[in-house]
Write a structure and sequence with these properties.
The complex is a heterotrimer of chains A (164), B (825) and C (289). Chain A is α+β, with helices and mostly antiparallel strands and 164 residues long. Chain A has two domains: 76 residues, Ubiquitin-like (UB roll); 76 residues, DNA polymerase, domain 1 (Orthogonal Bundle). Chain A has five helices and five strands, in the order E-E-H-E-E-E-H-H-H-H. The mean pLDDT of chain A is 96. Chain B has 825 residues and is α+β, with helices and mostly antiparallel strands. Chain B folds into three domains: 180 residues, Aldehyde Oxidoreductase, domain 4, CATH 3.30.365; 194 residues, Aldehyde Oxidoreductase, domain 3; 329 residues, 2-Layer Sandwich (Aldehyde Oxidoreductase, domain 4), CATH 3.30.365.10. In chain B, a hairpin with a 2-residue loop joins strand 22 and strand 23. Chain C has 289 residues and is an alpha+beta fold. A five-stranded antiparallel sheet of chain C has the order 4-5-10-6-7. A four-stranded antiparallel sheet of chain C has the order 11-12-13-14. Chain C has a three-stranded parallel sheet with strand order 1-3-2, with helices on one face. Chain C starts with a strand and ends with a helix. Chains in contact: A-B, A-C, B-C. Chains A and B meet through helix 2, helix 3, helix 4 and helix 5 of A and helix 1 and helix 18 of B. The structure holds flavin-adenine dinucleotide and FE2/S2 (inorganic) cluster (2 copies). Flavin-adenine dinucleotide sits at the interface of chains C and A. One FE2/S2 (inorganic) cluster binds next to loops of chain A.
Chain lengths: 164, 825, 289
C-alpha cells in the first residue's frame, strides 16, 4: 500500500503527515497526532462526535479521507482554548452543566463555535438547528442549549467591552 | 461565613440538621476542564507501543450451523498476529490458567462464556472469528479472507412466535425455569415468573369498570455515543493490564478472573473516562476477547466496536408484549389487575421479568393481582440493562391502561393515581414493603404546576393538534458495596480515592460531600478513580446506586478523616481530643478559643509528628433501598395527516430525596426524559424475516437530536430517604420510566388515537386514529395458554414468598453471568 | 476501510483520462458523505478513487439570465444553500438541499454526489427533475448533456457510463408565474432520510390555468417517480381544492412503494397523498404570487 504525505495545518501548526489514502482525517488526528480529543461515535456521519472545523466550517472528520485534507486548515477541540484560557463556550459548558459523560462535548463545542462565529445572537431554535448534527445521549440537550446562549451573551458583552 | 451562625462541630449530628454550605449548590463539574479541552481519555484514547488492532467477523445469519471455517488465507496475510475462533477458547484459556478445561464448559448457552460463536450462530452479527493485525485495514483485509460455511436454520425473531411449541429452538440446552423447578424439555421460554395476591378473578369480576389492552414496545439500544473500546496487554510475568470503557473496573477484573481462571492479582484494570453506559457497560463486551488476542499475539491489542457492531451485537433492552387488565370501582379505586408480560430477552437467557412488573405496577395499591412474566429467547442479540431495566416497558403498559381507565371514568389522571398511590408500608408486587417514599408529592407537584393548572394551548403549527399526558414511574433503587479513601494533603486539602466509575457527574457530588463534611471549600477537594491495583474495591456503577452508596462511603470516609484530624490537632494542642472543636477549617481548644490551628497547619504537622498523616476510610455494603418516584407531564403536537409527533414541553417531577447538586439532578432527569422520548417516538430495532437487523446505524436507528428534544422543566421534590447521606436518593434511573407512556397518553389527548405500540411516530398514530374513528378494538386481552410446563424437580427450590426481593437488584444491572465471582486464593 | 489507490487530478480532462486508463473498479469522490459510508459499512471496495478535490472550476455556483443556474459538481450543499441567486430564484432547491443531513454533512456533501448516488430518497433529485435540470457529463470522448429525468435507472444506478463524470448541473431560468415546493416526511425533525417525499412545480398561464405541472415523488419507487397521471389532471385547468385533492389521489397510484425499515407500503401511499396535496397547494400559491 503506497503511503503518501499530507500537508495540513492543525490548530495553527503545519503538519506533514505520512498516511495511506484509506485512512480518514479523524485517524490522522487521533493516531498520527495523538489529538484524541476528537471522538469517533459512529464513523458514518451520523453522530457528530468527530466534528472539526475545516477552513472554518464544521465537518465530520470521519467522512474525510486523509488526503482530502491536503492544504486545509483544521481546528479541533484542542485548538479552542488560547494561551491556556478557555474559550467562552468551553467555560459556559462547564458552568451550565452542558456536559455529562463528555464524549459528545468536543464535537458539540466545535459546532457551537462555528455557529457563534456566523451568528452572534442565535435564537434557541437556531442553536438547536446548529447542533442537530451532534447527538448527545446524556443531557437531553437542554443545558447544552442554555450553555450556548450564555456563551453568546458573554461573547457579545466581551466584544462590547473590547470595542470601547 | 459569619460568626453568628451556629458553630458546626465534628460531634454534631445528624448532618441534615445543619446548614449545608456545599450540599445543594450548583458547583461546576470537577472534571469539566479535561472534558472541554479534549484531555479526558476515553476507552479508545489510550495506545501502547507495538499495539495491534483487533477486529471481529460478524455472522451474516441469525441462526445457522457453522459447518467449516477456513482461516488459512487470513493467517498467511502479512501483518496478522492472531486469529481466534470459538473452538480455540478452551485451549487458550487452559494455557493462560495452566489448568485443564473441557471444551463443554465454553459450549454453554451463556453469553458470558460464549464470547465467540461456537458450533452455531444464534443472532445476526454475532462475532465468529477475531483477528489482531498491525493496522485496522489489515485486520479488515484478514476478515475478508476468512471463509465460513454456514448451514442456515429456521429463524425466530418474534417473541410470541418463539413461545409456540413448534418454534425453532434458539438454544438446545435451555429449559424453562419456574418457581417450582426446571422443565425437562428444551424451550425458548427461559423463565416463567408468577406473582400473585388475593383472588384476582373475583376482584375483576366484581369490578364496576375494567379496561384491558395489549401493549408492545420495540427492542431499543442504550445509545451511548462512545462505542465499547478496550486495550489489553499481557506481560511475561503472567499479568494482564486492561484499559477499558466500563461501568466497573472491579466487575471486569472479577469477570476476567472467572473467565480466564486466574486470580484477580494477575489482572489490573483501568477504567477509562466513559462516554455513556446507561447499563450496557456494566457487563463485559470486548474485554475477554481483547485479552485473549493480546495473549495469543504477544502484543498489546486495541479494539473498538463500530457503530453497527454496537447496535447488532451488544446488549440492547428487550422488546416486550404486555397484556394488561385492570378492574376498578367507579371512583377509580383499583380492585384487581391481571397481566402477562412477555420479554424478548434475545438469544441467551438473562434479563428478567420481575423488574418490569415491579416498576409498572409497583406505584399502585392493587388488592388482588396475578402477574405473569415470560423470558423468551429469540434470534436477536442477548439483551441487557438499560436505565431502569424493563421499567419503561412495564410503565408504558400500566400507565397507558390507567389513562384509559381515567378517561372511561371521566376523572383526572392525577386524581386516579393519587387514589391508588402507594405510601410507606404498602407492599410492592414482590411483597416488599416501601420505606419512606415521595410518590404522592410528585403527583401533587404536577397537579399544582402552572402548566397543568392552565388550559391546554392551541398548537403552534396550523393543522397540528396539541395534547397533554401524564404518567408515573418508579425505580426501586440500587445498593452495593462501595468504598472510599479520603487522603488529607499536607495543606489540608483532600483527595477522594474510589474504585467506582463516574458515569455522569458523581465525582462532583462526592467532592461536595467530602467538602461538606470536612468543612473546607469545594475547590480544595479532588477525586481520583485509579486502577484496580490502587483503588479500594467497589461494585460497578449502575442502578442509580452511586450517589447513594458511594456517597455513604465518602461521607463516612470524610467524617473518619475529620475525626482523625481532630485527634492529631489534640496531639498538637496537647489536650484531650474531646476538648477540641472544629469549624470551617479551624481547630481550637474549647476552653481557650484563642488557641487555634488551621486544618492545613494540623495536616502539615501531622505529616511528620504524632500519629502521622491522615487517611479517612469509609465503606458500605448494604443500605436500605431508597425507591425513587417520578411523575411527568408531557405536551405534544401531532400532525393528524402524517402521524408526526413532536414533544413540545415536559414538566418532570421527581423525588430526589436530597438534591446535592441540582444541576446534576436536572441533567439526569433531562437526559432520561429525552431517551424516553426516543423510545416513545422513533427508536426501535427493525428485523427482516431472516432475522437481519435492518437499521444498524444512527441514521435509521433514530435517537432524538436537539430539534426533537423539548424544553424540560424539572421539579425536584425532596422527601429524604431513610438511609444514605442527607436523605439522598438515586436520580439516574427513574426519569426514563414514565416518559414513553406520558407521550402516548398525550398523543391520545391530542388526536383520540390510542397508540399501543412503540415507537409510535408516524404510521401507528395514523392507524390508531383510524381505529378510533371506525371503532376497531385491537386491545382485547389475548391470554396465553401455555399448559403445564413439565418440571423435573418436584420440590420447589425457591418460592416467591420466601425471600421477597425487589427485582431491581444491582445484579440485574450488571448481567450476572458476566461478572463471575472472583477466585480468591 | 480497505485499501485502494488514490488519485487527485487537477483537471477534468485528467480525471477522465485516469478513469479510462484504470478501467472498471474505480469511484469518483466528491464530498464522500455517501461513498465513505458505503466503503466503511456496506462492503463497497473500490480499487481506486478519483477525487475531484483538486479539479479546478468545479466548485462554482453561478446564475446568468438566459443560461440559468450552473452548479459545479464539487460545490458543496452549503455553497448552494447560501448562494444569493439560488435563495432568490430557486427556493425549492434551497428547501431540499437544506434538508440533507446536518451542517457538517452539508459542508462536505454536494448536489452532484446526491444525484450520482441515485438513492430513491435523495432529497435534491425531485426538485431538480421538477425544474427540468440538465446534467453535463464528461468522459474522455468529450461532454454530453442529459436531462436529469433520464438519469436515474434504479436504486444506486444511473445513466453515467463507465469513465464518465458529472461536471455540472444546469437549471433553466426561473419562469414567470411559476412556483415550486418540496416536502418530505421523516420521523425526526432533521438528520433523517425521507420515508416519502414530493416535489411539485407549476407554471400558470395568464388565464390562471395550469400550463405546466411536474410532480416528482421520492422514496416510493426504485428511482424518483413522475406522477404523470396527476400532472395530466392539472394541465389546462384552474386549480381548486378539489382538483388538488384529485391530483394527490392520482399521485398515489403513480407511486410504487415497498415496505422497509423506514415505512410500510401502505403508509407510504398515505404520505404521498398528503405530501402531494401540500406541495401542490404551496406551489400554486407561490405561482399566483
Ligand atoms: C448523516 C448523513 C445524513 C444524510 N442525510 C441525507 C438526507 O437527508 N437526504 C439526502 O438526500 N441524502 C442524505 N445523505 C446522503 C449524502 O450526504 C448526500 O447524498 C450527499 O449529497 C452526497 O454528496 P457527496 O458529495 O458527499 O457524494 P459522494 O459520497 O462523494 O459521492 C456519492 C456517489 O456519487 C458518485 N459521484 C459523486 N460525484 C460524482 C461526479 N461528479 N461524477 C460521477 N460520480 C460522482 C460517487 O462515486 C458516489 O458513488 C446523508 C448522509 C449522511 C452521512
Ligand atoms: S464519528 Fe463522525 S459523525 Fe459519528
Ligand atoms: S454528554 Fe454524554 S453524550 Fe453528550
Amino acid at each position: 500500500m503506497a503511503k503518501m504525505i499530507v500537508n495540513v495545518e492543525v490548530n495553527g501548526e503545519l503538519q506533514e503527515l505520512l498516511t495511506e489514502p484509506h485512512r480518514t482525517l479523524l485517524d490522522l488526528l487521533r493516531d498520527n497526532l495523538s489529538l484524541t480529543g476528537t471522538k469517533e461515535g459512529c464513523g458514518s456521519g451520523d453522530c457528530g462526535a468527530c466534528t472539526v472545523l475545516i477552513d472554518g466550517r464544521p465537518v465530520n472528520s470521519c467522512l474525510v479521507l486523509a488526503p482530502e485534507a491536503e492544504g486545509r486548515r483544521v481546528t479541533t477541540v484542542e485548538g479552542l482554548a488560547e494561551d491556556n484560557k478557555l474559550h467562552p463556550v468551553q467555560t459556559a459548558f462547564i458552568e451550565e452543566g452542558g456536559l455529562q459523560c463528555g464524549i459528545c462535548t468536543p464535537g458539540m463545542l466545535i459546532s457551537a463555535v462555528a455557529l457563534l462565529r456566523s451568528n452572534t445572537e442565535p435564537s434557541e431554535q437556531s442553536i438547536r438547528y446548529a447542533i442537530s448534527g451532534n447527538l448527545c445521549r446524556c443531557t437531553g440537550y437542554d443545558k447544552i442549549v442554555r450553555a450556548i446562549e450564555v456563551a453568546s451573551k458573554r461573547m457579545k458583552a466581551n466584544a462590547a467591552i473590547a470595542s470601547h | 461565613m459569619t460568626t453568628t451562625e451556629l458553630p458546626r462541630t465534628v460531634t454534631e449530628a445528624p448532618a441534615d440538621k445543619v446548614t449545608h454550605v456545599v450540599i445543594g449548590q450548583r458547583v461546576a463539574k470537577i472534571e469539566g476542564v479535561d472534558k472541554v479541552t479534549g484531555k479526558a481519555l476515553y476507552g479508545a484514547d489510550t495506545s501502547r507501543p507495538g499495539m495491534l488492532w483487533g477486529k471481529m467477523l460478524p455472522s451474516p445469519h441469525a441462526h445457522a450451523i457453522i459447518t467449516s471455517i477456513d482461516l488459512s488465507a487470513a493467517r498467511a496475510l502479512p501483518g496478522v498476529f492472531a486469529v481466534i475462533t470459538g473452538a480455540d477458547l478452551p485451549g487458550i484459556v487452559a494455557r493462560i490458567s495452566e489448568t485443564d478445561l473441557t471444551p463443554e464448559e465454553f459450549d454453554t448457552p451463556s453469553r458470558g462464556k460464549q464470547i465467540l460463536a461456537w458450533k452455531k450462530v444464534v443472532f445476526f452479527g454475532q462475532p465468529v472469528v477475531a483477528v489482531a493485525a498491525v493496522t485496522p485495514a489489515i485486520a479488515e483485509e484478514a476478515l475478508a479472507l476468512i471463509k465460513v460455511v454456514y448451514e442456515p436454520l429456521p429463524v425466530v425473531v418474534d417473541p410470541e412466535a418463539a413461545m409456540r411449541p413448534d418454534a425453532p429452538l434458539v438454544q438446545n440446552a435451555v429449559f424453562t425455569e419456574t418457581f417450582s423447578g426446571k422443565a425437562t424439555t428444551p424451550s425458548n421460554i427461559a423463565k416463567v415468573t408468577e406473582l400473585s395476591r388475593g383472588n384476582v378473578d373475583e376482584a375483576i369480576a366484581n369490578a364496576e369498570v375494567t379496561v384491558s389492552g395489549t401493549f408492545r414496545t420495540a427492542m431499543v439500544h442504550q445509545g451511548y455515543i462512545e462505542p465499547q473500546a478496550c486495550l489489553a496487554e499481557y506481560s511475561a510475568d503472567g499479568r494482564f493490564t486492561i484499559w477499558t470503557s466500563t461501568q466497573g473496573q472491579f466487575g471486569v477484573r472479577g469477570g476476567l478472573s472467572g473467565f480466564l481462571k486466574i486470580p484477580p492479582r494477575r489482572i489490573r484494570v483501568t477504567a477509562s473516562e466513559i462516554g455513556g453506559g446507561f447499563g450496557a457497560k456494566g457487563a463485559m463486551t470486548l474485554e475477554p476477547i481483547c485479552t485473549l488476542l493480546a495473549y495469543s499475539a504477544g502484543r498489546p491489542v486495541k479494539m473498538q466496536l463500530t457503530r453497527s457492531e454496537v447496535l447488532r451485537a451488544t446488549r440492547p433492552a428487550p422488546d416486550a408484549v404486555m397484556h394488561v387488565t385492570l378492574g376498578a370501582r367507579t371512583d377509580g379505586t383499583l380492585l384487581g389487575a391481571r397481566a402477562a408480560f412477555i420479554w424478548d430477552v434475545g438469544a441467551y437467557p438473562g434479563g428478567g421479568s420481575v423488574g418490569g412488573i415491579n416498576c409498572g405496577f409497583g406505584p399502585y395499591i392493587v388488592p388482588a393481582y396475578s402477574y405473569d412474566g415470560y423470558d423468551v429467547l429469540t434470534n436477536r442479540p442477548s439483551t441487557g440493562a438499560y436505565r431502569a431495566p424493563n421499567g419503561p416497558q412495564g410503565a408504558f403498559a400500566v400507565e397507558s391502561a390507567l389513562d384509559m381507565l381515567a378517561r372511561k371514568l371521566g376523572i383526572s389522571p392525577i386524581t386516579l393515581r393519587l387514589r391508588n398511590a402507594v405510601r410507606e408500608g404498602d407492599r410492592n408486587p414482590s411483597d416488599v414493603p416501601y420505606p419512606r417514599i415521595g410518590f404522592r408529592e410528585t403527583l401533587e407537584a404536577i397537579e399544582n404546576h402552572p402548566v397543568w393548572a392552565s388550559p391546554k394551548a392551541t398548537s403552534s403549527r396550523p393543522g397540528w393538534l396539541r395534547g397533554r399526558g401524564v404518567a408515573c414511574g418508579l425505580w426501586g433503587g440500587g445498593v452495593g458495596t462501595s468504598m472510599a479513601h479520603v487522603n488529607i494533603g499536607e495543606d489540608g486539602s483532600a483527595v477522594i480515592v474510589t474504585g467506582a466509575v463516574d458515569l455522569a457527574g458523581t465525582r462532583t457530588t462526592m467532592a461536595q460531600i467530602a467538602a461538606e463534611e470536612l468543612q473546607i471549600p469545594f475547590e480544595r477537594v479532588n477525586i481520583v478513580q485509579p486502577d484496580t491495583d490502587t483503588a479500594p474495591f467497589n461494585n460497578p456503577t449502575g442502578g442509580s446506586r452511586l450517589t447513594y452508596s458511594l456517597g455513604t462511603a465518602v461521607y463516612r470516609a470524610a467524617i473518619d478523616a475529620r475525626t482523625k484530624l481532630k485527634q492529631r490537632a489534640s496531639q498538637q494542642f496537647r489536650c484531650p481530643a474531646d476538648e477540641v472543636d472544629y469549624r470551617d477549617g479551624e481547630f481550637w481548644v474549647r476552653s481557650d478559643p484563642s488557641i487555634r490551628l488551621t486544618i492545613g497547619q494540623v495536616a502539615r504537622s501531622a505529616a511528620g509528628s504524632g500519629d502521622g498523616p491522615v487517611v479517612g476510610t469509609g465503606e458500605v455494603t448494604h443500605l436500605l433501598r431508597a425507591p425513587a418516584f417520578a411523575t411527568q407531564l408531557v405536551e405534544v403536537e401531532v400532525d393528524p395527516e402524517t402521524g408526526a409527533v413532536q414533544v413540545v414541553n415536559v414538566v418532570a417531577a421527581q423525588d430526589v430525596g436530597r438534591a446535592i447538586n441540582p444541576t446534576a439532578c436536572e441533567g439526569q432527569i433531562q437526559g432520561g426524559v429525552v431517551q424516553g422520548i426516543g423510545w416513545a417516538l422513533t427508536e426501535g430495532y427493525v428485523y427482516d424475516e431472516q432475522g437481519r437487523l435492518r437499521n444498524p446505524g444512527l441514521l435509521d436507528y433514530r435517537m432524538p437530536t436537539a430539534l426533537d428534544a423539548p424544553n424540560i422543566e424539572c421539579v425536584l421534590v425532596e422527601v429524604p430517604a431513610i438511609d444514605g447521606p442527607y436523605g439522598v436518593r438515586g436520580v439516574g434511573e427513574v426519569p426514563i420510566v414514565p416518559t414513553p407512556a406520558a407521550v402516548a397518553n398525550a398523543v391520545f389527548d391530542a388526536c383520540a388515537g390510542r397508540v399501543t405500540s412503540l415507537p409510535l411516530c408516524g404510521e401507528p398514530v395514523i392507524v390508531a386514529m383510524s381505529d378510533s374513528r371506525t371503532g376497531v378494538d385491537r386491545s382485547q386481552m389475548v391470554m396465553f395458554n401455555l399448559g403445564p410446563i413439565p418440571t423435573g424437580n418436584s420440590s420447589a427450590p425457591e418460592s416467591p414468598g420466601e425471600e421477597p426481593k425487589l427485582a431491581t437488584e444491582v445484579e440485574d444491572y450488571c448481567a450476572e453471568d458476566d461478572v463471575a465471582e472472583p477466585e480468591i486464593e | 476501510m480497505r485499501a485502494f489507490a488514490y488519485h487527485a487530478p487537477a483537471s477534468l480532462a485528467e480525471a477522465v483520462a485516469i478513469l479510462r486508463r484504470e478501467g472498471p473498479g474505480g469511484r469518483v469522490l466528491a464530498g464522500g458523505t455517501d461513498l465513505l459510508v458505503q466503503m466503511k459499512e456496506r462492503g463497497t471496495v473500490p480499487r481506486y478513487v478519483v477525487s475531484l478535490r483538486a479539479v479546478a472550476d468545479l466548485s462554482h455556483v453561478t446564475f446568468q439570465t438566459g443560461r440559468g443556474l450552473v452548479i459545479g459538481s464539487r460545490a458543496s450543499l452549503t455553497d448552494v444553500i447560501t448562494n444569493r441567486d439560488v435563495r432568490e430564484r430557486y427556493p425549492i432547491i434551497v428547501e431540499s438541499a437544506g434538508l440533507v443531513g446536518s451542517h457538517q454533512i452539508q459542508n462536505l456533501g454536494t448536489v452532484g454526489g446526491n444525484i450520482c448516488n441515485a438513492s430513491p430518497s435523495a432529497d435534491t433529485a425531485p426538485p431538480l427533475i421538477a425544474l427540468g435540470a440538465i446534467l453535463r457529463l464528461h468522459s474522455d470522448q468529450g461532454p454530453r448533456e442529459l436531462p436529469i429525468a433520464e438519469f436515474f435507472t434504479g436504486p444506486g444506478r444511473t445513466a453515467l457510463e463507465e469513465g464518465e463524470v458529472l461536471a455540472e448541473i444546469i437549471v433553466p431560468d426561473p419562469q414567470p408565474h411559476s412556483g415550486g415546493s418540496y416536502e418530505r416526511y421523516t420521523p425526526r425533525q432533521e438528520m433523517d432520510i425521507a420515508v416519502a417525499s414530493a416535489a411539485s412545480f407549476v407554471i400558470l398561464a395568464p388565464d390562471g390555468t395550469v400550463s405546466h405541472a411536474k410532480i416528482i415523488l421520492g422514496a416510493v419507487g426504485p428511482t424518483p417517480l413522475h406522477a404523470r397521471a396527476a400532472e395530466a389532471m392539472l394541465v389546462g385547468k384552474i386549480p381548486s381544492g378539489g382538483l388538488i385533492e384529485a391530483a394527490a389521489s392520482a399521485a398515489v397510484s403513480d407511486a410504487r412503494p415497498i415496505s422497509d425499515q423506514r415505512g410500510s407500503e401502505s403508509y407510504r401511499r398515505h404520505l404521498i397523498n398528503v405530501l402531494t396535496r401540500r406541495t401542490l397547494t404551496r406551489a400554486i400559491e407561490s405561482a399566483r404570487g
